[in-house]
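pasting for ref
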Amino acid sequence: MGIVDSPVVTALVPVIVFIAMGFCVGRWGWIRAASVKDLSNLVFMVLTPALLFRTMSTVHVQELDFGPIAVYFLAAGLVFAATLALGGFSSLAAARALAHTFGNTVMIGVPLVGLAFGDPGLVTLFTLISVHSLLLLTSATVVFELAAARERRGQAGQVHVPMWRTVLQAVRNGIVHPVPLPIMAGLLFAQTGLELPQGVDKPLQLLGQALGPLALLLVGVMLAFSTVGVYFRVALRIALVKNLALPLVLAALGWALGLSGLSLAVMIVIAALPVGANVFLFAQRYEVGQDEVTASVAVSTALGLVTVPVVLLLAARMAPG
């Protein structure tokens, strides 16, 4: 088998081509900036739940491998903590820490892993996604709130919100969400031993097939409308940590713990994905580092066109077959 015909290359080519096409479409004005939010809603509210539910509706919990997923969150926790330790316990450091650890697991991760590792890889990915937002975003919320409370201390007129209420709201938002909810629903359905009727399964299949191309095109369109400017250097530092340092930490932990195989390979690839858009939502909510985070998403995604193929080539050697 030549390198051109290898599974890694055949998985990467569509990803790069679709992102490039989306970038051109945005630059040429075929899609306006005002339409990006609507396309994003279509991807997250319709196409993503269909693919997630259908894939997990045949998976039995006892077949899932949680070892590599635990290693993933251990690596993310170490990088997050190191960022806070080096940057100081502040809202800005928390925003950077989240950017270092929270990746674009849906729009880039789903099509890439599906093409490179097939359904077994997607099952591993969806298992991670089911708790990815819940654990990382809830932890980030606690850190943001503690940092913000510290910064507000002594300021007059500030209303104190109990930490338990903030955490409870973060947990609720992490579960009642168009990504983890269909995964959990699919898993629950699978445990019944029933099969989806053809009239339900086929529409879900067609919607799921549309996710990959549209999500990747949307990534390109978002890149076309992104601005970096004076934030390039700090955005590049964030991108290097997210795209390279996090997967290296994960691979080292996996090696030290004796893990290998498909699940670990998928985790390493996911760790190498660019910064996810949810990081900007946190920066916006806490009014800190918004321009910096926006630039890091763009730079990380552009850099990922080089770093993700390298990581994927290395990680694919761990996968069987």
